[in-house]
Fold each of these.
Amino acid sequence: MIRRVAGAAQVEYHDSLPSTNNRARELENEGAHDWSVVWAGVQTAGRGRRGRRWQAGTGEGLLVSVLLPEAWAPMPQAPSLAVGLAVARVLDGWLAPGSAEPVVEVKWPNDLMVEGKKVAGVLCERWSGERLGRIVAGVGVNLTQSEDDFPQEIRDGATSMRMLGAGSVDGSQLLADILEELRSMDGETAEEVLAGLQARDHLEGARVVGEDGVQGVASGLDPSGSLRIRTAEGVVVHLVAGSVRLVPQGE
C-alpha cells in the first residue's frame, strides 16, 4: 500500500513486515528515490543493534525506515546519533511544545530516553549497491503502549508517548515531522550536531561499563561520535562501537 506523507518521495506501508530496513534495502536495489520510506504496522523480525529484537504490536509504534541521500552526512561517522538527534528534537515538540529545554535525551549509541526510560530507538545501516554508501535509517517510536504492553524483561526501562502525556499521536504527522527535521539537518555541520547531542547526553557523568568490560565515567562524545569513558586510573578510552550499561550505585 502506498501512502502520502509530506517530505517523502514515496511511503510504502505494510500491515506486517519482517523488517522495514530489509525492505528498504530491496527498494534501494530497485532504484528507489532518496527519502523513500517503508512503514510497517508491526515488525515480525525487526532488529536493533547487534541483532537484538525490535518489535511493536499493531498500531503501538511508529516503525519506519528512510532511504537517506548519499550527501546526507551531518555526522558521517555516526549517522545513528545524527538521526537520533533529529528524532529527539521532533519528540520534544510533541511532548513539551514551546519548551527551550530538551526533554528527550540521547543514550549513546542509538536510544532516545525520557525520564530514564527508552521511548525510541534508531538503527542506521549502510549497504553497498548501485549507490555505494547510501544509509537506511530505521526509526522506532513507542506511541500507544501502557506499562503492561511491554514484555516483563523491559518494562522497567521502557515508556511511550502516551505514557508521557502526549495523548493521541498521529503517525503520519509524526513521520512528516521527522522527515522535515532530517531534511533541515542536512545543512548542519558535524560540530553543530555534536553540540546538540552533548546538550542531550543521557550518559554524561554516569558510571558505565562497556561490552568489552571497560568501566569508568562517561565523559561526553568526541568529534567522531565515539563515547569517551574516563577510567579510575584517569585514562580516557574512546568507545567506537558496541553498547554500555549504567553501573548501579554501590556496584
Note: The first helix runs from residue 20 to 29.
Amino acid sequence: MDADFIQQARAYKNELIAHLFGRPETPDEDDQASLLRQIPQGSNIVGVGFGHKMTQGTQSKEEPVIRIYVKVKLPLAEIAPAFRIPPEINGIETDVIEVGTLEPFAPCGVSVSHQQGKPGTIGCLVRKTNGSSNADFILSCNHVLANSNRARMGDFIVQPAISDGGTQVVAQLSDFQPLNFTGGKNFMDAAIAQVFNAGTITPDIKNIGRLNPQPLAAQRGQSVIKNGRTTGFTQGIIRDPLVDMSIPYPGSGFALLEDHILIDNRAGGSFSLVGDSGSLVVESTSKRPVGLLAAGGTGFTLASPIAPILARFQVRIV
C-alpha cells in the first residue's frame, strides 16, 4: 500500500478520534494502538478506517472518506451531542458503517469471503515483521480476499462467507499479490486483510490447533494436513513439490502457477474441494506451515509455498 496513502489515512483517523475523544496525553506517532486506546471501553464506536465509500457493495465515490465502524447505527436523537460524528473532518467526508458486536469466534480454517466474492477459507493469522503495524491480518488467497484482482484496498472481508449466510465484517483488504492472467508466471495466490478488532479471530486452526510458525519447505512424500471450509480436516501426501500448472479462474482467465506443491489425499478422494482455497497446509507431525491451498481438481490439490508468501507480505505466522 502506498506510503503517502497510509500517512494520510493515519492523520485523518487520528483527527477524528481526537475530535470525539480528545488527544492522548502522551501521543506516540509510531504506536498505532494508541489510536484505538482513546475510544472508551463499551463505546458504540469499535473502529475507524480510511477508504472509499461503498453503497450496496459498489464504490460510490472516487474520493476517500473517513470510515467509522459502529456496533449499531443509532438515531441522532439518541447520541449525545459530544459524540455525534461530524459530516466531515478537514474537508474529508465521514461514513458510518454498522458491523454489529464483534466477539471472538471460531479459529482459522473456517469460511470467509470478500464482500462480493465466493467462499474460501481463512488460512492463518499473521503480523508484520517490518514494524509497520502490530495488528493481526488474515492470510488467504488473492481469489478469496481480493476477488481475483477485482477488489480495492479497504474492501470488507466477511466471516462466514456471504454465501454461507455471513453478515459480520471482520477485516478489510490490506494487500494482495496480483494474479497474472496474460501468460506471466504466478508463484503465489495470496492476500492479507487487517482484522478490525484483536481477538475477533483466534490463531488456532480448527481441528489442528496452534502451529509451530516456522515455515517448512515441501518435500516429495511429506505428510500434510489442512482444515478447510468445505471438506474440513483432511490428510494428504505431497507428490510433487515443484509443479507448474495452468489453472482457470472463472471470469478472469487462466493463471500459470509455477513452482507449486501438488498434494494427493492420503485416504483417497479429494484433499480439497471448492471453498477450501486459502487453507493453510501444514506438516502432519510438527504442524509447521508448508503452503497455502490455491486450487484443486479431481484427485489433486495445488498449494503455493508458504515461505515466499510470508516474505512478500513481510509477515510472520502468529
Note: The first helix runs from residue 3 to 21.
Amino acid sequence: GHDVWAEIAVLLASISYAFASIFGRSFSSNPPMVTAAGQVTASGIVMAPLAIIIDDPLAKAAPGADAWGAALCLAVISTALAYSLYFSILKRSGATNIVLVTFLNAPSAVLLGSIVLGESVTAIAFAGLGAIGVGLALIDGRLLPALGLVRGKSG
C-alpha cells in the first residue's frame, strides 16, 4: 500500500525494457556498434540539457582526473561495449532471448548482497533462485525431452 508509485515505476520499467527489445529488432540491418553509438548519442543529447538544468555543473568545482577516468571507463566498458554486445545478441538471438538476461538480476543481487553486504541467504531466496532455474530450463525447451516427459522437435 505505501509504495504504490515505486511499484508502478518497476512495472513501467519492465514494460519499457520489453518494448525496447522488440523495437531494437528494427535496427538489425545495422552493425551493432552503429546502433549502440546512435543510442548512446541520442540519450546524451536528451540528457545533457536536463543535467545542466537540474545539476548546474558550471556552479561546481571541475571534476578531477579520477572522476574523468571513472566516467571514461563507464562510458567505454559499461555502456558502449555492453550495448554493442546487446545489439549483437539481439541480432543473432532475437528479442525474446535477449530479455532472458533479466533473470540474472535476482541471482546477482542475492550473490552480491551475500558477498559484499554480508546478508544471509534464506530458504525463500534459494526457493526463488530454484524457481528461476526451473523457469529458464522450461523456456529453453531441452529439459523435458531430455527427461523423456515430452518428445523433442526432431522426434
Note: The chain has a mean pLDDT of 85.
Amino acid sequence: MQDRPVIWFPRIVGILTALYGLSAIARPDVIARHGELDSPDQRRSAVALLSAIIGVRDLVSGVAIVVAPCGGVLLAALTARVAFDGGDAVVFGRLLPTPRARRKIAGVALGWGGISALSMIWAGC
C-alpha cells in the first residue's frame, strides 16, 4: 500500500497539467500577467491566442498522461510534456519583454519539466 501514491504521481502531474491548460483557455489574463504581457501597448488578441495555444497543448498533454497505460505510452506522454516545458523555458526565457518575466516563466517551466521528468521513474507503474 505504501507504493500507491508513487504510482499515481505521473497521473497527478497529468491532472495538474490539464487543469492549467483549462485555466489558460478560460483566463488568458493569467499568462499575460505572469509574462508581463498585459501592458496597454500589448495587443489583447495576441495574448488570447498565445494563452489558447498553451492551454490546448497543456490540456491535451495532461489528459494523455492521465489516460496513458503504464509503460512506454505513459513514458512517451511524459517525454512530450518535458519537451514542451523545455521549449517554453527556452522561448519565454529569451523573448518575454522583461528580464524578471523571462526568469520567472523560464523557472516555472523548468520546474514543471523537472516534476514531469521525475514522475517518469514511476511510468512503468
Note: The chain has a mean pLDDT of 87.
